[in-house]
Structures are given as C-alpha cells and as structure tokens.
Amino acid sequence: MEIFPNSFIMQKTTDENILQKKIENVGEEKQDKELMDICKDFESIFIHMMLKEMRKTIPDGGLIEKSTATKIFEDMFDEEMAERISDSEEDGVGIAKMLYEQFKNQNRIKI
Q1: Nearest to 20 by CA among 10, 31, 11
Q2: Quick one: which of 28, 45, 61, 94 has the fewest CB in 10 Å?
Q3: Span 6-19, pLDDT tens digits
Q4: How do the residues of the chain divide into helix, strand and coil, expressed in percent and rounded to 5?
Q5: Based on C-alpha coordinates, what's the Rg of the chain?
C-alpha cells in the first residue's frame, strides 16, 4: 500500500472548499449521532419513569411482602426494559425521533 503526501491529495481535489466541506460533514455526522444518542437516553429515562409509575398501580399480592432485593431487581428490570425499548430498531415509542428532528430543525434556523 502506497501512502501519498498531503500535496498529492490536494492536487486531486479541484477545490479546497470541497475538502473543507467533507471535513465539516464528518463533524456534523458525529454530532448527529451524539444528538440521537442523547435523545434515546432521554426516551429511555422517560420510559423507565413510566414503567415505575405503572408498577405502582399493581397491588402487592401474596402473603409475603416484597423484600428490598425484589424492589431493586424490579427497578433494574424496568430500567433495562426501557433501554431496550428506546434502542429498538422500530424507533422505540418515537420520542427520541421527535426530539432529534426538533433539535435538528432548531439548529438549522440558528445557522
């Protein structure tokens, strides 16, 4: 594999602006991915809170009270389910996608 110096790469491009735009696009793509990850994290937190509140509506049954370990396990289970729902390929419940679009449109207006 032959490695060319930077001057060769610059000669191949017809305009320095093209190279600059490619560099900026890489940064934007990275920012887009980070923004989507943050939106999915928010959706996961929201779903976790929703599952926790839904669990409170179910009355405790049986002769034995829930132990602290059982409560911790249920909370961890709800948290994991929330993460999996928000990371699913079907866009979770859609909150992350809506937030992402809102923030992207907001950034376009400011620029």
Answers
A1: 10
A2: 61
A3: 554 445 445 667 65
A4: 75, 0, 25
A5: 24
